[in-house]
Design goal:
The strands form two sheets. Strands 7-6-5-8-9-11-10 form a seven-stranded mixed beta sheet. Strands 2-1-3-4 form a four-stranded mixed beta sheet. It folds into two domains: 81 residues, SCP2 sterol-binding domain (Nonspecific Lipid-transfer Protein, Chain A); 322 residues, Vaccinia Virus protein VP39 (Rossmann fold, 3-Layer(aba) Sandwich), CATH 3.40.50.150. The protein is of the alpha/beta class. The longest helix has 23 residues. The N and C termini lie far apart (56 Å). It has 17 helices and eleven strands. Belongs to the CFA/CMAS family. GO terms for molecular function: methyltransferase activity. Keywords: Lipid metabolism, Methyltransferase, S-adenosyl-L-methionine, Transferase. This is Class I SAM-dependent methyltransferase.
């Protein structure tokens, strides 16, 4: 025990925040005036703390073996300093890659994907509404102006996507993984497209159906409960968006997903892929147990690929990359906004989850989400994970003639159309979905 206490004291002393550990016996180790305190109800998780395996330590918190006291921002500062190695520098050999691909294939059947989406997105709409913006946009915001709040930045993101896709009135638009309908409704109401969304979440499907009816958009907007692999083979769209979705596709299915997008996109059309990407080229997931934590408690079946691997799959699928933008710092700011909003309403969150699940599951979920939101904010800040928007085109085969000879798609010769002034980005004064 003395050796363990000596190890703990040496690990806690240089941390950037004052931290203390309370052992099951009641003995305290660390700073007397602590900003963060870990109360251990068993000795087993102490090994993870000493080794800097913060994902395993987080699992012990969720399971009630360790109690946290302190601000989550301070907890994350301490957690990052406890790491003993770079969590994205691990490499995997050919055998590990084969095994990961085999596991990925088993994880992403139609039935497993539906179950995994239900586990996360159907937890509780009321819980998510506590800390998301009024449109419930559950993906990285775009802080186009430094002073934007979260709601404005989410609207700016929706418009940024629509601009990149050059949406026009009357075009057919598909949103793969439509969430609570933010992009689907924005595209229909602000750009006049014929919008169709698909989702595997029953809660989101029901919510968006009510929004469509409440806003009188039945003739222009549809939401369907189906997998992208179940879309009819003869279906084609002018423009496609996939926001916060390809993280659920998996390594093994990514080539087939790219081929599906190619098939669904008419020649000359554009698709916008917006998703979380791995910070390292070769690591299968974030190290120090953080990847396992997210897979167990938050996103079962979720898999991250480096942006180069995503682009490789889509290039193999016959789609040309036109533009790629890294919004990593925007997601760090988004996640901190979500984390701060949840921290400000913890009693209400606890009540909602206890009523809509059960008290034990609700308590575990709340502990998991507190660590997940703040931990991911930390991960994006430090570059362990990233967020990319990739605009791809399906070439139309036309080289000569037309307004843009040689373009082979609707993508113009420069990016000015995405950013030029004179096209006002709507603000939070824009209509928001009515409460359901």
């Amino acid at each position: 025990m003395k050796n363990l206490i000596d190890t703990l004291e040496s690990r806690l002393a240089p941390l950037p925040v004052a931290m203390a550990v309370e052992l099951p016996s009641g003995k305290r180790v660390g700073k007397p005036q602590a900003e963060v305190t870990l109360r251990f109800r068993s000795l087993a998780p102490l090994t993870a703390l000493a080794a800097g395996h913060i994902g395993t330590l987080g699992a012990a918190v969720v399971e009630g073996q360790v109690e946290l006291e302190g601000r989550v921002r301070d907890i994350m500062r301490a957690a990052s300093a406890l790491l003993q190695s770079d969590p994205v520098r691990g490499t995997s050999g050919w055998w590990s890659q084969i095994m990961a691909r085999t596991r990925s294939m088993a994880l992403h059947t139609l039935a497993r994907d539906a179950e995994q989406i239900e586990f996360h997105y159907d937890l509780s709409d009321d819980f998510y509404a506590l800390w998301l913006d009024p449109r419930r946009v559950y993906s990285c915001a775009y802080f186009r102006e430094p002073g934007m709040g979260l709601a404005q930045a989410q609207e700016a993101k929706l418009d940024h996507i629509c601009r990149k896709l050059q949406l026009r009135a009357g075009e057919s638009f598909l949103d793969i993984g439509a969430g609570w309908g933010g992009l689907l409704l924005w595209a229909a109401e602000h750009y006049g497209v014929q919008a169709r969304g698909i989702t595997l979440s029953r809660n989101q499907h029901a919510y968006v159906q009510q929004l469509i009816a409440a806003r009188g958009l039945q003739e222009r907007v549809r939401i369907e409960l189906r997998d992208y692999r179940q879309l009819p083979p003869d279906t084609a769209f002018d423009k496609i968006a996939s926001v916060g979705m390809f993280e659920h596709v998996g390594h093994a299915q990514m080539p087939a997903y790219a081929q599906t997008v190619h098939r669904l996109l008419r020649p000359g059309g554009l698709a916008l892929l917006h998703g979380i990407t791995a910070g390292g080229v070769d690591n299968a997931q974030v190290g120090a147990g953080m990847g396992e934590f997210i897979g167990r408690y938050i996103f079962p079946g979720g898999e991250l690929l480096h942006v180069s691997r995503v682009l490789h799959a889509f290039a193999q699928g016959g789609l040309e990359m036109c533009d790629t933008e890294n919004l990593r710092p925007h997601y760090a700011r988004t996640l901190w906004a979500w984390s701060d909003a949840l921290e400000a309403r913890l009693p209400e969150a606890q009540r909602i989850l206890a009523e809509q699940t059960d008290s034990e599951r609700g308590a575990r979920a709340l502990r998991a989400y507190r660590l997940y939101l703040a931990g991911c904010a930390m991960g994006f800040e430090r570059g362990w994970i990233a967020l990319h928007q990739m605009l791809v085109a399906r070439p139309d085969g036309q080289v000569d003639g037309g307004a843009l000879p040689g373009a082979r798609s609707e993508y113009p010769f420069n990016r000015e159309y995405m950013y030029r002034k004179g096209i006002a980005c709507p603000t939070s004064s824009s209509p928001v979905p009515p409460p359901i």
